[in-house]
Records
---
Amino acid sequence: MTQTMNRAFSPEAVQELGGPAWLAEKRASALELFHTLALPTEAVEAWKYTDVSDIDFDALKPASRKETVTSEEQLPAGVRARLGSTDVAGYLVFDGPDVIFKNVPADLSQQGVVFTDLRSALDSHAELVQQYLYSVVPAEVPDDTTIAAPGTTPSKSPDASEGKFSALNAALWTNGAFVYVPRNVEVELPLGSFRVLDESGTFTATRTLIVADVNSKVTFIDEQDSEDLESAFAFGAVELIVKDGAQLRYVSVQNWGRGVTHIQRQRGDVARDAVLNSLVVTMGGSLSRTEMQSHLRGQGASSEMLGLNFASKDQHFDHYTLQHHAAPHAHSDLLYKSVLADTARGVFSGMIKVDLGAQKTDAYQKHRTLLLSSEARNDSIPQLEINANDVRCSHGSTTGPVDAEQLNYLRSRGIPKSLAEKILVTAFLEDVLSRVPLQSVVKYIEAVIAEKVGAV
């Protein structure tokens, strides 16, 4: 077993996190796995184009604990700005490892909706948390497993990716959002979580758990933001459980400052006739690796997976996706758009996997990349693994530069180059943005794009 001298990754650190006995056991098992697994290298297929060998766990310390605040006026300026332009029914604000502010309207509780931070839920809703936590992103199994139905044992699969990082999160997560929507309840406005970082040389491990019970409906917006930092690490895990006939829309907007390394695994478990709509937006950080998986385990399940990212300067963005069809008559549709400028690097690896017996599968996967610089580089690996004979599956990927004729046309009309590029980039991303019914999120994304191309 590989050992580390850093107390932040020791059994003592896990014990100090507290919690019930069952959670302590899960954490201890995950910590052991973390120390057993080596860092993934470029020799591992899933990490062929992304090098994380320079992560020095011995040099990392956990982000310091934060005090709660009593009003919105005391929140970080960036969070206040987002709250002022986002329509949410309730929200949580996390600074590093701690929730520092909650705004949860009473009418949510009156409907039976549980919306709180995960550590509080361990006390107030212990049975719910124990039932669902680690059921979609497991704590005790290595990274060659697939998603299983909540409460069952995962089955083996070759979709290995970031097992060491998932084990780290499972062992050392400090807090995150917990949402439970009871059966037949619809939450009209989105719920939100806003996370910030402000310390160099530190790491945070956060976990989000969202459960949409039978025939329920909810939207959740998960945003991450920080100033530029010398070095910081955000290790995340997101578990999305969508039961029979339920609808869940999950939006992740990552806009960390330079110097932040972001590694997050997001998995959705979609039951019979349920719908999971996900949007993954990556704009910030120096290195970002995001995995989004949808496991369609119920007949008639549906998953829409949207993604867009804009990398500039020397940013490196890696996205890994899995559309796992385990039941017949299920539908999945993936559309990811990437924009790369300067010397940025983009990686996309997407798999459609159809299990034996998952007949009448209808699955689509499309990834397109726009290059704003001849020095930017993109690697795209779309893949199919089909084990049923009555399916309709397609995948494709394109990479190309800005259309010179279109750019020249705009410039000939007196439009500056930066603004012309902003117009073309926004048009390129439009077919993703047009499928997002959250206008405040769309406007925020467009503002970040404008800043990246120097049009503001």
---
Amino acid sequence: MKCILASHGRMSEGLLDTVQMLLGPQTDIEAHVLLPEEEPARLKERLEAAIDPEDEGNIVFFTDLYFGSPFNQVVELSRTHDIYHVTGVNVPALVEAFVARSAGKTAREVSEAAVLGAKDSVKDVRKLMASVPEEEKEGEEF
């Protein structure tokens, strides 16, 4: 199964670097960027070129921002290609997705794993620490 990351700026490259630091080298994964001086249509061309006919139904796109330009370009691709698409991607989402992928899960299952991984990943640490009794905070690492 193939995974393609697309983002504003170099975020997708950074996400891929981070996940590979955590999980080791990954295969069949590409990171594509939309630079400020580029038209979104150029990104769409690169993303479409990354889709091989044998990838149809077995490819997951990850974009950074719901309704952002990379998101919109992948939505356009979904009109003519059988692809999965997860938006709002972050490191926990990709870790869960890549672990599911390495376990042989389908593109649909990988997409579901990514959404679940992202769902609880944003925390207000001040509120978390306020809810822990003082005696438990001493000597504990969060």
